[in-house]
Amino acid sequence: MGNALDRLEANGVLAQMDKNGVSIAHHLRKLDRAIDAQNRGENVRIPEKFRPPGGRGDTKELALTEVRKHLLFDLARPRRIRQGQDTLDCAAAVAQSTLARQDPGEYVRMTMELATAGSTKTRMGHKVSLDGAVGDSRVRGRTLTGDLFQPGLKRMAQKHWPDADGPAGSTSLGGRQYSSTMRYGNRGFGTTVRRLGGDVGAGEALTSYQYGQLVDSLLAGNQASVNIRTGDQRRRLPSVVREALDSGSVQVGLRTDGGQLGHAVEVLRMDATYDQGTGKGGVTVVYQDPQTGESHMPAGQFFDKVAHVTLPVGLRLRLVDKAPET
């Protein structure tokens, strides 16, 4: 944990501010004071859903110490953020990792408020609350901060944008009928579960429309999703994504093979490659997969799988059907 803190300080991350002008360093000092008070046995209130079974509101043992540890690791290595096993929370996990990468001040503020007050608000003012118990009931393969964020982000998006398909249709992310041997990326669930992506009533997954709205609420960057339906859109897609990467990571939804429901990932960069054997150059897309971590794929193969992309509105207009070349 000390190495992570040193790295963040050296890179100037601790000086970054949240939406209220409070620095990460200030938030961490406040958290340290709460941990010290907790260790002295003082009454440090913890939300009910953030307690062990039978625990009182002022006794969560090392809960805040754990929050601090995972918070620093998330900021230093956002690629470690995962959706966890047996979940369809890929869109919420990507939204979480996007926030940690692009707006670490807000990431710290929201984490602190979820852990100590049980709710927080995004930059756009949408309320996110703890949804389900965290900590001792942690989803396997997901950290404490993932438990704090992901269920609440998913519920918030479904509440504020209940029209799951959006105005022009949308791809559902993270779901189809899974069995113990079927999962995006060929990784099996531990148990057989029936989860249909985009089933808002059951709250199992988000659609690309809800995903795009969620990212916009977190970043307040005038973001919007666009579905890729035509060959002309797909032809323009790589150059638009490359331009969007100048401002940060890009959130996309990939089609699963043979299905309409997809998987949310976060594009990090596009690298030039060279094959000495053939003497030909190419491009590789490097992306964060919330199931498996940082991955890569040849650009042609990757962009052929993209079902939707979330972009700043100005760039989005270049991918709208029949948009003129620029």
Write a structural description.
- By secondary structure, the protein is an alpha+beta fold.
- It is built from ten helices and twelve strands.
- The protein has helices at 2-10, 24-39, 63-76, 90-102, 104-117, 144-160, 208-219, 231-244, 299-305, 313-316; strands spanning 119-121, 127-129, 172-173, 176-177, 194-195, 206-207, 223-227, 250-255, 262-275, 280-289, 293-298, 306-312.
- The strands form four sheets. The chain has a six-stranded antiparallel beta sheet, sandwiched between helices.
- Strand 9 (262-275) and strand 10 (280-289) form a beta hairpin.
- Helix 3 (63-76) packs antiparallel against helix 5 (104-117), helix 4 (90-102) crosses helix 6 (144-160) and helix 6 (144-160) crosses helix 7 (208-219).
- The protein is globular, with a radius of gyration of 20 Å.
- Residues 52-62 and 175-203 have low confidence and may be disordered.
